[in-house]
Fold:
Amino acid sequence: MAETAPQSLPVARENGLPDPAERPDADVVIYDGDCKFCIGQVKNLRRLDCCGGRLSFLSLHDPRVAERYPDLAYDQLMAQMYVVDSQGRRHGGGDAVRYLSRRLPLLWPAAPILHIPGTANLWRWAYNQVAKRRYKLAGKKSDDGGCENDACAVHFGE
Structure:
């Protein structure tokens, strides 16, 4: 008997974002699909990718992430967004933002400031400050009121 397809759509697809299956040659943005702030930001990235289909998206909660990128631990993915480029290189957090400023033409105006020599640590720090407060900024996607297994403790300082 043939296997049936999963009943629910992948989170990225649910959010109207292109899936890596649709764009196999695109860079993959791995983001927190339970975070309203993160979902809003990746939707902005999709709009900024208006002229090329350079990006596809996977929620870190999608089982395919662990299958495709076993070197990226869950805690790493919860701490920051990752972009896996078409050569398989991983760009995380502030470095991912800097990478995207070179990759997406609509972000090219930001690239010079993001790449001022000696500022990489500043951008990493700034990214981390926002990332660790992301649930406080916009909340979680699910309205069930809780984080499983204390998953939000790192973000809420509990």
